[in-house]
């Protein structure tokens, strides 16, 4: 005689009004995330963690080590997030401070290296020749942006140190040169031997800006010329 089962296999299905432990846990997690825009804050984490504890299998509870590990991981993540926010705020503050500091240079004169000279409004150019030792004489030459020699001059013996000079903005014929970029070279003579020495000039700051790529602060000294704040070695009136 064959034996058949009369048990309704559908009776093992959980009724719709009863939630399994896994379903309750999942719904609690989703509710927490939805209520925080998908972000996991400290309060949301603790709420979710409490839901996990309530929904855990009583025959196989969460291990204490796992509990502590989750708390430690969250604390580390939260600390890193707060540090990142603080650094972002600090960078913005420093950028504002640097701009304010740079703005105080507007209208002042700053040094340009390598003999660069800016003539504006037909005014003269102040500069400094750096002498590493005593010299018998100094020869100065002014070149235009195209390399044309426009003015020459000479000074007698000078002591070691910085020798200040002023170019009046005239050419060798006594005529005012056009506004624009120029270059000044200095050559010293000592015991019959010539040596080129560094020349720096002063130019008026007309504007300040921040490099969009490097974030470096720049000062505008006219004639489409800018220089980094870190390049400024001397500030005049």
Beta percentage is: 25-35%
Report the uncertain regions: 1-12
* Approximate helicity band: 25-40%
Largest sheet: 5 strands, antiparallel
Annotation, overall tally of beta strands: 13
Tell me the CATH architecture of the largest domain.
Sandwich
Strand order of the largest sheet: 6-3-9-1-13
CATH topology of the largest domain: Immunoglobulin-like
Arithmetic mean pLDDT: 77
Euclidean distance between termini CA atoms: 117 Å
Output the keywords.
five-stranded antiparallel beta sheet; Immunoglobulin-like; alpha+beta; 3 helices; 2 domains
Q: What's the gist of this structure?
A:
It contains 3 helices and 13 strands; from the N terminus they run H-H-H-E-E-E-E-E-E-E-E-E-E-E-E-E. It is an alpha+beta fold.
Report what the structure shows:
Helix 1 runs antiparallel to helix 2 (42-55). The chain starts with 20 loop residues before the first helix and ends with a strand. By secondary structure, it is of the alpha+beta class. It contains 3 helices and 13 strands, in the order αααβββββββββββββ. It has 2 domains: 19-102; 109-236, Immunoglobulin-like, CATH 2.60.40. The strands form 3 sheets. Strands 6-3-9-1-13 form a 5-stranded antiparallel beta sheet, with no helix packed on it. Strands 2, 4, 5, 7 and 8 form a 5-stranded antiparallel beta sheet that branches. Strands 10-11-12 form a 3-stranded antiparallel beta sheet, covered by helices on one side. It is elongated and about 105 Å long.
